[in-house]
Write a sequence for this structure.
């Protein structure tokens, strides 16, 4: 496939740039008035229209992208899209002013989702998640991580992870699976935390490892959920089975979650709506990626993470959706990028880099995804005609994507 007359080819990072730290996020290389050649699902070559070689310009399969930009697909490294039911009954409680913790205590929250998921069949869950994922792809997402964590029993956690495996087999994008049984304590373990951790460590993890159902391990490390010591136990047990951590950290309070994650060599710490100087110091000396989820802050009405301080401290910041029925009922990465700019004061270049190359890095796939680089997979989107790249986050809530290309082929859903 040949695409010509492209207004701007966005995100041309070099092959050896696998993650962007701090000030590197400012730089989003763009080639104006360009052509792009895709072959066998890969980015084969690109250049300026003025010097397009004649053997290329004569190619038959040809799209003209006049006035349009081509971006690398969004890489959404944090979602919970396998769930049985939406939770809009909590929406009214939220509007009345109830907090996330109060809603959970009143029978809403994660345990509510777990109850519904336990009753749902694998087919029903696959059906629901497929509808969500298709919609996300049409909104420009070309790689995704999906967590378990609404099962909370061995049977249901495995059911969720099998659904994720089916999604991996069915969709033409890379999908990473994360085991998140340590999401909330089931009611029967309310006063027996160690009992549930033993279940995770001695029963769930060996089966999941045996079936190779997960790539990562996650814990919701938070007051009222999993303590730092409990998190440490779960992460270490995951490590024994080769699962690296991606941790829900500092969403509602500064808890020591970042420290325990870094000690366990986490790939990413996610959320960080709450942070302090110590959090930043801990991350300075680590390779751990800081994944920020601004649509969760938007929906819950909690603070937005301090992206500017993280970038100033030379940290690698990524952006993701957190799509889930409780705190973020949206998988739209375009909106995440807009919020990154509008609410977290990231520049468009920073937000776009954070949602592409650094998102890919937070799933360990940035060698093949996350930028327009010769040899990488051709997972891209073509925008509508736009005056500049900043127009995409600026025109929040509007859809600027016209064509989605996955593995070099147009995706229509
Ligand atoms: O990332 N914080 C924990 N997990 C999800 C919310 C889960 C839920 O409310 O169902 C999150 O925000
Ligand atoms: Fe989450």
């Amino acid at each position: 496939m040949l695409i010509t007359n492209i207004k701007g080819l966005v995100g041309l990072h070099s092959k050896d740039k696998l993650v962007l730290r701090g000030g590197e996020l400012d730089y989003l290389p763009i080639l104006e008035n360009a052509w792009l050649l895709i072959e066998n699902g890969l980015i084969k070559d690109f250049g300026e229209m003025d010097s397009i070689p004649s053997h290329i310009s004569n190619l038959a399969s040809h799209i003209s992208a006049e006035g349009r930009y081509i971006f690398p697909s969004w890489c959404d490294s944090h979602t919970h899209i396998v769930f049985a039911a939406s939770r809009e009954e909590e929406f009214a409680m939220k509007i009345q002013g109830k907090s996330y913790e109060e809603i959970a205590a009143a029978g809403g929250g994660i345990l509510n989702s777990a109850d519904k998921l336990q009753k749902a069949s694998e087919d029903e869950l696959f059906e629901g998640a497929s509808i969500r994922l298709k919609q996300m792809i049409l909104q420009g997402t070309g790689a995704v991580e999906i967590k378990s964590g609404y099962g909370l029993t061995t049977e249901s956690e495995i059911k969720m992870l099998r659904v994720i495996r089916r999604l991996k087999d069915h969709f033409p994008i890379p999908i990473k699976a994360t085991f998140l049984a340590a999401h909330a304590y089931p009611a029967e373990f309310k006063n027996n935390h160690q009992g549930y951790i033993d279940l995770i460590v001695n029963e769930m993890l060996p089966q999941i490892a045996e079936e190779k159902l997960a790539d990562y391990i996650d814990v919701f490390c938070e007051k009222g959920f999993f303590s730092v010591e409990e998190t440490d136990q779960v992460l270490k047990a995951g490590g024994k089975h080769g699962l690296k951590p991606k941790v829900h950290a500092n969403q509602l309070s500064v808890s020591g979650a970042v420290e325990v994650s870094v000690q366990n060599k986490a790939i990413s710490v996610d959320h960080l709506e709450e942070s302090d100087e110590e959090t930043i110091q801990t991350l300075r000396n680590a390779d751990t990626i800081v994944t920020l989820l601004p649509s969760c802050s938007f929906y819950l009405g909690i603070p937005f993470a301090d992206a500017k301080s993280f970038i100033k401290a030379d940290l690698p910041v990524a952006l993701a959706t957190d799509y889930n029925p409780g705190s973020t009922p949206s998988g739209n990465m375009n909106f995440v990028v807009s919020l990154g700019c509008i609410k977290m004061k990231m520049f468009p270049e920073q937000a776009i880099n954070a949602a592409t190359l650094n998102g890919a890095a937070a799933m360990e796939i940035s060698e093949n995804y996350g930028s327009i680089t010769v040899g990488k997979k051709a997972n891209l989107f073509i925008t509508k005609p736009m005056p500049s790249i900043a127009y995409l986050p600026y025109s929040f809530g509007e859809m600027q994507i016209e064509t989605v290309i996955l593995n070099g082929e147009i995706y229509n859903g």
Summary: The pocket of fe (iii) ion (ligand 2) is lined by residues 78, 80, 248, 322, 324 (CB under 6 Å). Residues 2-73+370-411 form a domain with the Urease, subunit C; domain 1 fold (CATH 2.30.40.10).
